Amino acid sequence: MRLEPTATAILLLIFGLLLGVSVVSSRASERTGIPVVLLFLGVGMLAGSEGVLGIRFDDYGFAFRAGTTALVLILFDGGLNTPTALVRQYWRPAAALSTLGVALTAGLLALAAWLLGLPLPVALLLGAVVSSTDAATVFSVLRGSGIHLRKRPGATLELESGLNDPLAVLLTISLATALTAGSVDDVSWWGVAGQTVLQLVIGGVAGVGFGMAGVALLRRVALGGTGLYPALTLALAFLSYGITSLVQGSGILAVYLTGLLIGNADLPTRSTIARVHDALAWLSQIGMFLLLGLLVYPSRLAEVAAIGLGLAFVLMLIARPLAVWITLLPFRYPAREKAFIAWGGLRGAVPIILATFPVLRGVPGASQIFDITFFVVVVNMMVTGGSVPWLARRLALESKEPPAPPALLEISSTRPLRGDLLSYYIDAALDVAGVAVSEIPFPEGVSVALILRNDALLAPRPDTILEIGDHVYIVASAEERPFVQLLFGRPEEA
Fold first, then answer.
1. For FRET with 34, which of 26, 336, 390, 475 sits at 20 to 30 Å CA-CA?
2. Looking at residues 200-210, what average pLDDT do you find?
């Protein structure tokens, strides 16, 4: 009886210690420019079998499942924070990068690995594993680095990272299965291409379906507590991924689209949902990279350092740039934007998670593939990830329009009101800027409840003029919201 409570207490103590150190260390990311996810990875390595705590962990199956679960949460949160307007504008180049771009990158990396002395089957599998960018790393660097990118390069990179996993997964599974059987000659490349298209179509349809159903459900269901709405969206994310994957579709794409539709819907609980899932995404990133760090034996990395460095620089300087420049030729991107997209195609958890699959299938040379992949990812994050903000400034790709500051007011319940309380940010582009409240043509039943100006709350009067920089809180029913949106734009996420 004593052993189990003690063991549980020690387990929670260790987890709390690792989590706390990871969160606190994230402050160092802002000062050093090192991607915060790399610091989480480093904490895991320090705690691992050859580190300070000496935690022995070699369960690749658990790492694969836990990593996939974390990616679902991260991609769902990414969808919640992506405006549909950007998707409509840039989905074509992003889709091209996530298919043709991935295939070109995989082929060039496989060729480089073969020239560096790896057997051709191992080289092909390694190219497939490292071919896709990582959504967790891309979202973390672009949204947490303090840079405010122009829409086209930033949106293209983010959309690509959310779309490019299916082909990489299919290539990895197909090659690993073939190598287990004995030969890559059994791989039908046309079959892989067709299956990729089919997965994307099924994933797209399923994601839109789950997203629309989720929006309808969230608008109609009345739950007992505000915290239950994020729990419901979490269930929708897992259902979207699970059901889509079972019917041979891309669960990754489905969950991203589900989050996209829910995040862009006018929901009274959207702010709460967004905040909770942002926290879950961060927790998933920390846990995933800690786990992957525990899985690594640093002494083995020294054995693959030469080939790992070679492939890392081939990836950053040849394979990724060539793939981006060729793929984006029809879309007339300026050279500086192509250069940024090429450099910002960060590798992270996805390649490492994919590298566990050959180990699970018992593919010859799987341990070497895992170690090389890990080495390439670390070098890529250190060199590329740390220089992304600097490159964006050097290429003059920062947006001249600063993002709107977040509102400082949080209102937990609007149940007594005849409608929803929505927050809008007043910028210079809105016609209501500089207009008195009494002069705004509100529909009947709509009213301004509060104004937040320079961190001070104002009770609106008829002669109160809305100023640029104000956060205006408006009461409106679901039927009146479209009219308010014509005047004030989209509500804030809070």
1. 336
2. 91
Domains and CATH numbers, the chain: 23-394 (1.20.1530.20), 420-488 (3.30.70.1450)
Taking a C-beta distance cutoff of 8 angstroms, is the pair 349, 36 a contact?
Answer: no
Burial of 240 (0-12, 13-18, 19+ CB in 10 A): buried
Assess whether pLDDT exceeds 80 at residue 385: no
Burial of 299 (0-12, 13-18, 19+ CB in 10 A): exposed
Strand order in the sheet with 471-476: 420-425, 471-476, 447-453, 456-458
How many angstroms from the chain centroid is the CA of residue 196? 21
Residues 245-250, mean pLDDT to the nearest whole number: 88
Please tell me the predicted confidence (pLDDT) of residue 494: 43
- In the chain, the N- to C-terminal Cα span, in Å, equals 48
Asked whether residue 403 carries a pLDDT value surpassing 70, the answer given is: no
Task: State the SS3 of the chain.
Answer: CCHHHHHHHHHHHHHHHHHHHHHHHHHHHHHHCCCHHHHHHHHHHHHCCCCCCCCCCCCHHHHHHHHHHHHHHHHHHHHHCCCHHHHHHHHHHHHHHHHHHHHHHHHHHHHHHHHCCCCHHHHHHHHHHCCCCCHHHHHHHHHHCCCCECHHHHHHHHHHHHHCHHHHHHHHHHHHHHHHHCCHHHCCHHHHHHHHHHHHHHHHHHHHHHHHHHHHHHHHCCCCCCCHHHHHHHHHHHHHHHHHHHCCCCHHHHHHHHHHHHHCCCCCCHHHHHHHHHHHHHHHHHHHHHHHHHCCCHHHHHHCHHHHHHHHHHHHHHHHHHHHHHHCHHHCCCHHHHHHHHHCCCCCHHHHHHHHHHHHHCCCCHHHHHHHHHHHHHHHHHHHHHHHHHHHHHCCCECCCCCCCCCCCCCCCCCCCCCEEEEEECCCCCCCCCCEHHHCCCCCCCEEEEEEECCEEECCCCCCECCCCCEEEEEECCCCHHHHHHHHCCCCCC
- Taking only the tens place, the pLDDT of each residue in 123-139 is 989 998 998 887 777 77
Do residues 359 and 366 lie in contact, with contact meaning Cβ atoms separated by under 8 Å?
A: yes
Residue with tokens 């896709």: 132
Please list, in sequence order, all residues whose beta carbon lies within 8 angstroms of the beta carbon of residue 3, skipping any fewer than 6 positions away.
none
Question: What mean pLDDT value characterizes the chain?
Answer: 82
Per-residue pLDDT tens for 286-341? 888 888 888 888 888 888 889 999 999 999 999 999 999 999 999 989 999 999 99
